[in-house]
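## retry 2 of 3
previous attempt timed out at serialization; input unchanged, resubmitting
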Amino acid sequence: MFKARDREILEVLFNFHWISTIGKHEEIYLAKINFWRDCDLLPQDIKGILKNIRVGEKFSFSFKSGEIFPYEESNIYRVSKKHFEPNRSVLKALEPRFGRFYPLGFFKGIPGVSPQNIRPARVIGIEGSFLLVDTNSPIAHYDLTVEGEVLSVSTKESELGGVCRDWFSLALDSGPGMQVRYKNIPTDFELDNPDSFRREDESDDPLFYRTPRLVGHIDAKAHENLMWLYDTLLPKRGLILDLMSGYQSHIPQGDMSVIGLGLNADELKQNRRLSDF
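## retry succeeded, writing output
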């Protein structure tokens, strides 16, 4: 028989804080937790809280480095350069570089890794025809503070199949931490490589924007999330420059004046949030 909470979906807003050598970092992630399927994949402290928490209640926990994502020397692999296999039809000239992150699936031969795996892995050494590849999570080196708030609770009608989701891995194991040096190895973002800035369509942008597109370019929930984020970051009054502006801005209402900079005058004219453009 199901327990009451086992029939529920919890919408939880997670806020992860961590500090590195370059500053303070914050990662915000919205999770829709199927309590019956997903809770065993969460840290036990978080699982315990979610058993009885109600809508609107908040919680906070701190974790030492390695508690959530352990750092293991066994997760560093020596891989032949011949086994570096990006999609050559798209990335024709890509060669492995020291300090650079690549999708884990680019490295053929690492146990249990499929070509579709996009978790970041860093090249931490190049030894002749071999690469040293660190597959540990970039966030493994940092203490984490996790704050959460339950936004809603809904009831499932049935449990007919689905996927178990590790929400901490989804939030933190695919990017956070990549910007920070590890053992004094700077992250290489290939800013000196002109291919990094080439587009599939190199025609002039004004050709694309010649026709006005009087639509939002993100969905309603993403628009709502951006407005919430900007409301926490922007001053409540003053002058705001909205770069790459169009028909829709994501700036909340307030006493600030908003100047839009965009590529289609008709779109900017109909953007109700702009004071001028």
